[in-house]
Specification:
The chain contains 19 helices and 17 strands. By secondary structure, it is of the alpha+beta class.
């Protein structure tokens, strides 16, 4: 590491190359300030927007028990005013004057702040942004006003089935683990027992001072300026972020798990607001944030195995039977100390009637995947295919929105070494069949948390979830179902198999030579006009060569003219319905 010292500040430059996509022409540099704050600098001379983000490794799990939503409330309050910029909402006014925008989110163990701005306004925006983490004011008047903004956000989510379902599942968790908490906050949770805004401000300031510290922060800055200029700004703006004694990333590993094995299986009916019919199956698993697991991404790989759509997949079989319209599989939650794998099946009315058989087929798929990866040759094939797809997506990815990119990268800096912060989250670099089989072995009927959502079903013995008022009821599993699901009789012939080789994955990425007309247009600085290749009564086909980005990619757009669609409201609605 190279230590550079100034009059009162020093910075560590991390040596070695930062692995980036071959299609990425930006320059990167990773540094650590003397207060422990990590930073990634991105120089992009062609950028049309500049951006920066800070990810703080503390979130809603760290809420005090008597103030649910305080971390989220703190996120809101930091935008309003600071000692250096005391005029309330000056930050947002400055952004709007210069074509910018900003936002933030509070997750379970992270709080992420980001902005986007015109490139020539990056430095003054950074100066305002850094003050969030140096000297916020948290005025009592603002506390009272912003409290209602948070309450309004919660009210907006009350009729959102995704929020309702998530909080319902969390409400079943062990209250000794912070996973069970209500994280958005409301007037009732932030001002319990009619307490005052003054008391809330005191709680907020105390929480901020014991939660926000420079070593818990990761900064990303992307601008047109060179790396030396960006580093100078990072050091001058963010070195004053305090390193607070005794403040560390919260550790939840010694707490009871969200769901203990003896508390499972559990099954519930859930009354959605919208016309939803679905089954959500969850299994609690161990934490998978170790270095090996971050490289191998077992939950992502399990999602690939169970969430495929091709012949032999679980979804293809359920669609063939007329039981499902869609299926998603992957991580429901993933933190250092626990993870949750989830399979969600969007059912047809017939599928809801046959819900127990749908569940049986899910376990049949789990069993088939476990058996399949037990074959060394098949395991190697799947591992190679997963990695190949990831590498294609990474090597030839399109440039992201500036603020989305800096926001994601700031979070990744907490999990990956700087050299691997770009490639590590994107590419599965190993396939451990033994580890995957171990996870599949824990995804049993006896460890299942099942949620059945059916807008058409009338519930009996209704209960209500505390924060969203969601109606739910315990769901009695059919007699003998646990035994049946443990040994499901799903046909193997033409049934469930590992994903087949994808014949459409490319291996040759050489760009074809430009046609003479395209080369001439490019030389003249003009885009080649589309060429008509096919013109018949049944349709037309146009093509335009595009090589200016130097990527082996193509875009296809197909439009059908269906006059009947626009002749009635019914036709317009039916045109939006999935086949």
């Amino acid at each position: 590491m190279l230590m550079l010292a100034g009059a009162a500040q020093s910075v560590v430059n991390h040596p070695g190359p930062i692995v980036k996509s071959p299609s990425d022409n930006r320059d990167y540099r990773a540094i650590t300030l003397d207060n422990g704050l990590k930073a990634m600098l991105i120089s992009d001379p062609t950028a049309v927007a500049a951006s920066a983000a800070v990810d703080v490794h503390v979130g809603a799990f760290h809420d005090p028990e008597d103030r649910p939503g305080l971390a989220h409330f703190c996120e809101h309050m930091l935008f309003l005013s600071t000692k250096a910029y005391p005029v309330e909402n000056e930050y947002f006014k400055f952004l709007s004057q210069h074509g910018g925008h900003a936002n933030a989110y509070t997750a379970s163990t992270h709080t992420n702040f980001f902005f986007e701005i015109q490139p020539d306004q990056l430095e003054p925006t950074l100066d305002r942004f850094a003050q969030f983490f140096i000297a916020p004011i948290f005025s009592e008047d603002a506390v009272d006003r912003e409290l209602h903004a948070v309450a309004s956000e919660h009210s907006k989510n009350l009729q959102n089935d995704a929020w309702r379902k998530r909080q319902l599942l969390k409400s079943f968790a062990n209250p000794a683990h912070p996973y069970h908490k209500f994280s958005t906050g409301s007037v009732e949770t932030l001002l319990p027992n009619n307490s005052s805004a003054k008391v809330l401000r005191e709680k907020l300031v105390a929480w901020y001072n014991r939660s926000y510290s420079a070593p818990l922060m990761a900064l990303t800055i992307s601008g047109k300026q060179n790396l030396s200029t960006l580093q100078q700004w990072a050091v001058s703006k963010f070195s004053a972020v305090p390193r607070r004694a005794g403040v560390a990333v919260p550790d939840y590993s010694k707490l009871p798990r969200p769901y203990a094995d003896h508390e499972l299986p559990r099954a519930y009916d859930f009354k959605p607001v919208r016309q939803e019919q679905s089954l959500t199956l969850q299994w609690p698993l161990q934490g998978l944030m170790t270095k090996d697991n971050l490289a191998e991404k077992p939950l992502k790989t399990l999602g690939f195995l169970l969430g495929g759509e091709a012949k032999g997949s679980l979804l293809a079989l359920l669609i063939e039977k007329g039981w499902a319209e869609g299926l998603v599989a992957g991580a429901g939650d993933a933190e250092d100390d626990y993870s949750i794998f989830e399979v969600r099946v969007a059912c047809t009315p017939l599928g809801m009637d046959k819900w127990a058989e749908v569940v049986s087929h899910v376990f049949g798929a789990i069993r088939a995947m476990k058996k399949g990866i037990g074959n060394a040759a098949e395991a190697a094939r799947i591992g190679k295919m997963v990695r190949h797809v990831d590498e294609l997506n990474f090597d030839y990815k399109e440039e992201e929105e500036a603020s989305g990119y800096t926001s994601d990268l700031a979070g990744n800096l907490h999990q990956y070494e700087a050299a691997d912060a770009l490639r590590g989250p994107a590419v599965t670099s190993g396939f451990n069949a033994t580890r995957l089989a171990g996870l599949l072995a824990r995804m049993t009927p006896q460890r299942l948390l099942l949620l059945r959502a059916d807008f058409a079903r009338n519930l009996t013995k209704v209960q209500k979830e505390k924060w969203y008022g969601t109606e739910y009821a315990e769901l009695a599993l059919p007699a003998g179902s646990l035994e049946e699901w443990s040994y499901p009789g799903v046909p193997s012939d033409g049934g469930l198999t590992l994903p087949e080789e994808n014949a459409f994955l490319p291996s040759d990425f050489k760009l074809l030579a430009q046609p003479a007309r395209a080369a001439a247009s490019a030389a003249a600085g003009a885009a080649e006009p589309p060429q008509l290749l096919f013109n018949r009564s049944s349709g037309t086909l146009w093509h335009r060569t595009e090589t200016s980005f130097g990527l082996p990619m193509a875009t296809m757009q197909i439009s059908w003219a269906v006059p009947r669609v626009g002749r009635s409201a019914r036709g317009a609605v039916l045109a939006q319905v999935k086949p």
